[in-house]
Amino acid sequence: MEIEKIISELNYKAVRSSGAGGQNVNKVSSKVVLSFDLRNSKFLSDDEKLLLETNLSSRLTTDLVLILNCDEDRSQFKNKEIVTKRFLELMRKALIVPRIRKETKIPKSAIRKRIKNKKTISEIKKTRKKPDF
Fold this sequence. Notes:
The protein has a domain at 3-94: 2-Layer Sandwich (Double Stranded RNA Binding Domain). It is 45% helix and 14% strand. It has five helices and three strands; from the N terminus they run αβαβαβαα. The protein has a three-stranded antiparallel β-sheet with strand order 1-2-3, with helices on one face. The model has no long low-confidence stretch (mean pLDDT 88).
């Protein structure tokens, strides 16, 4: 994944932020909405697209567009930086292929130890009974 090329495919849109802020909220478009079209990306391979589609399926729209918002800061520039970092971190995590777990056999010593422990507990419980004459 080439970060600079993928960043060039991102679409940013400045929107008026909701919430507290007084009269300034009504004038300034500080919220940044990032959208990334996964299907039409030129710099991702087909395997990467498939991996991203499966790992980010809950965050993608029906058209396979990833949309991220940021309105944490009052500055549009800082919000753009934050949302870009968030996008790159999300992509990095989604492109990690998990290693396949190899099944291992239970060691014979562990099996012997478990059975021996069961027998000792069984003997302890047998000695608790009243003897029958």
